[in-house]
Amino acid sequence: MGRTPCCESKGLKKGPWTPEEDKLLLDYVHANAPGNWRMLPKLAGLNRCGKSCRLRWTNYLRPDIKRGPFTPEEHKSILQLHAIVGNKWSMIAAQLPGRTDNEIKNYWNTNLKKQLRQQAALNPAAAGDHHPAAQLAGSSSSLAARHTAQWETARLEAEARLSMLSTTSAATTSVTASSSSSTAEHGADAPPSDVFLRLWNSEVGDTFRRKAVAAPPREGKAVAVPPPGDDSSAASNVTVAVTTEDYQVFMDLAAEEFGLFHGGFPLYPPADGLAQSFMFADFH
DNA sequence: AACCTTTACAACCGCGGGCTT
DNA sequence: CAAGCCCGCGGTTGTAAAGGT
């Protein structure tokens, strides 16, 4: 593949941006919407590579970026989403308006990861055994730290299991995001959200599906769900469209089953009313 | 006050993948 | 179909600020 070396030109500035450079970039983007990043530095009069300009804009200068510490709600959402999608920072950021993937990634690496390590040190048994909630019940550490450890443990466990399964199963699963963000573009053929699928395929998922069957589909979105334990339907091309609302209900149920997150933990309402939908084709 | 360590976060780097030619 | 171009992503690094000794 033709890869473009970045900043290969001599004399291009690197490192921290000055207010003057910021102003040049802002002025240009305001006058001309960000388009060709490669050409932008030259057009804007910046001695930077296009990549650096794009990064500065998307991570710092964009007007819709929310500054300041993460709220408890954002904290919870990050924990939950990370448990589902792992280090897919852009996917997580897509659910947190005003937050960048870089910001979330930094927050995770400096804050949440540390909590997890501390929790693991306090309760090493929880790191590798079966039910996270059972392992951690009775712990005296903070609730947030337990949440982190529980979800991370569940995630790692499920990933390992799915990894084993994937070597013998011909199941094909796709996850798509319906939003118009760049994440959607890149996520179209992304690997399945392992833990989500594991939860979905577990008793928790069965319970959810039973409830989904009992309730009529909402807002015209087709919710075709295989009856619990129906292997024949599982073998066929059953497509399940999960709306944001479904997703929230499902995750709350999963949390309930795990004995976690008392009171549930809301995701941010999607900007377009349907921030994310997961499509499971050839469901197994 | 000086030095060392830790923390937080901005920025860089290399890569993968989509699109165009 | 292959090569080139461009963009975005995730991992990593650099560094200023804060805290500790």
Automatic annotation (TrEMBL):
The superkingdom listed in its UniProt entry is: Eukaryota
Supply the name of the protein.
Uncharacterized protein
Native source species:
Avena sativa
